[in-house]
């Protein structure tokens, strides 16, 4: 890790790494979310600094490789065929189109490239083979490759692993109790089953959720508990703020206080200190100050580029200015996946902690 010496020559020694815990209770998580803000941020910073360089965030770029026309009914999603959201369905992109976008993302400073497809289940046959080629290509560009293709079979997970897939994104989105209010076309257990297959194939897990869908604090606690009691923890935990899209059932949801998002990020950081906590969808509606608080709370990744999958994201220049203003920078190398206790560590931290 680069020296944490400040301008006054004071050495900020990284705090000792706490052992990772997998037995968090709902009561403990509730107490964390209820902490006075200064205490919460102090605890999150302490956890963050033990495992990560607090001045760095990973830049990830998303590409929708297959857009719209999805048969599922996820109430937040602009790509569900049943909602009139103005998203035009688009067939699976070619390998070349995808790799061109990945190369551009890399040139812009991203170290992780995430390919999203609006499928309920990953398909079999030619389309799947094309995705496998994409994964190989993205890896050969020196990027981490992440896919989110819906539910996977064991064989599909193994094929993706062989191709070098770094991570598979499959979100639990919310608590088991609230899930049925948001999605009726699949069960929570089906999500967990796919996550189990991803893990068994040796691919790292990217799993998180969304706030702002009308869920209660108890539901946020339920989601955090599901995530933080997985063994091992998901290596990557995206925290999304609902992007309210006209035509979806959640278009008119009340906006969430950004400080609630900061609390969610900070709690995720404390519960899963070695994981990457990703400040994901919804940044366009956040002030610079709110994003800075999320970074202080332990978020260490953003999506870069003016588009997420189908909705907008801050322009790259705006993010560069934000990081500059904060004296922060993008990680310049991918994150290794072989840290202590099976958790991922940025290469820079690994070098320092052995
Ligand atoms: N079809 C696949 C699936 O559902 O797993 C992959 C694509 S899906 C768009 C990936 C994730 O994006 C969802 O699980 C959800 O967490 C997030 N997402 C989708 N629409 C969103 C929105 N409007 N606001 C915030 N997050 C959203
Ligand atoms: C995640 O948790 N958020 C990203 C990524 N994983 C695939 C997707 C956000 C999508 C936001 C809505 C859209 O742009 O369509
Ligand atoms: Fe389909 Fe995924 Fe959107 Fe749900 S979140 S409607 S599964 S694309």
Structural overview:
This protein is of the alpha/beta class and 354 residues long. 38% of the residues lie in helices and 14% in strands. The strands form three sheets. Strands 1, 2, 3, 4, 5, 9 and 10 form a seven-stranded parallel β-sheet that branches. Strands 6-7-8 form a three-stranded parallel β-sheet. The protein has a two-stranded antiparallel ribbon with strand order 11-12. Strand 6 (209-211), helix 8 (217-228) and strand 7 form a beta-alpha-beta unit. Helix 1 (26-34) packs across helix 8 and helix 9 (258-271) packs parallel to helix 10. The chain starts with 25 loop residues before the first helix and ends with a helix. Residues 338-354 have low confidence and may be disordered. Bound molecules: S-adenosylmethionine, 6-(5-methyl-2-OXO-imidazolidin-4-yl)-hexanoic acid and iron/sulfur cluster. The site of iron/sulfur cluster has 9 residues, from loops. Iron/sulfur cluster binds next to loops.
Strands, helices and their partners?
Elements: H1 26-34, H2 37-51, E1 56-66, H3 95-107, E2 112-117, H4 126-140, E3 144-148, H5 154-162, E4 167-169, H6 176-182, H7 188-200, E5 204-206, E6 209-211, H8 217-228, E7 236-241, H9 258-271, E8 276-279, H10 288-296, E9 301-303, H11 316-326, E10 329-330, E11 335-336, E12 345-346, H12 347-353
Parallel strand pairs: 1-2, 1-9, 1-10, 2-3, 3-4, 4-5, 6-7, 7-8
Antiparallel strand pairs: 11-12
The structure holds S-adenosylmethionine, 6-(5-methyl-2-OXO-imidazolidin-4-yl)-hexanoic acid and iron/sulfur cluster.
């Amino acid at each position: 890790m680069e020296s944490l010496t400040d301008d006054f020559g004071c050495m900020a020694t990284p705090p000792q790494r706490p052992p990772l815990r997998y037995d968090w209770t709902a009561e403990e998580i509730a107490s964390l979310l209820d902490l006075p803000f200064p205490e919460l941020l102090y605890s999150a910073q302490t956890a963050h600094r033990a495992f990560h360089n607090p001045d760095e965030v990973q830049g990830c770029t998303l590409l929708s490789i297959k857009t719209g026309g999805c048969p599922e009914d996820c109430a937040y999603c602009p790509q569900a065929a049943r909602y009139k959201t103005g998203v035009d369905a688009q067939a699976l992109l070619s390998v070349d189109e995808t790799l061109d976008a990945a190369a551009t993302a890399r040139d812009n400073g991203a170290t992780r490239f995430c390919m999203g497809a609006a499928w309920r289940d990953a398909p079999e046959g030619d389309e799947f083979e094309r995705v496998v080629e994409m994964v190989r290509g993205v890896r050969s560009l020196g990027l981490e490759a992440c896919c989110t293709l819906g539910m996977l079979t064991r064989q599909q997970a193994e094929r993706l692993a062989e191709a070098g897939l770094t991570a598979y994104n499959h979100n639990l989105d919310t608590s088991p109790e609230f899930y049925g209010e948001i999605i009726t076309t699949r069960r929570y257990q089906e999500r967990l089953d796919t996550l189990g297959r991803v893990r068994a194939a040796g691919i790292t897990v990217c799993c998180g959720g969304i706030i702002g869908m009308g869920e209660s604090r108890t539901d946020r606690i339920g989601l955090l508990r599901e995530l933080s009691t997985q063994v091992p923890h998901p290596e990557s935990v995206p925290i999304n703020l609902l992007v309210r899209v006209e035509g979806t059932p959640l278009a008119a949801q009340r906006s969430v206080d950004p400080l609630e998002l900061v609390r969610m990020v900070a709690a995720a950081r404390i519960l899963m200190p070695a994981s990457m906590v990703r400040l994901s969808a919804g940044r366009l509606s956040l002030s610079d100050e709110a994003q800075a608080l999320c970074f202080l709370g332990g978020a260490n990744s953003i999506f870069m580029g003016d588009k997420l999958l189908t909705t907008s994201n801050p322009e790259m220049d705006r993010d560069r200015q934000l990081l500059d203003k904060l004296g922060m920078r993008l990680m310049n190398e991918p994150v290794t996946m072989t840290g202590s206790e099976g958790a991922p560590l940025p290469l820079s931290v690994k070098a320092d902690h052995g």
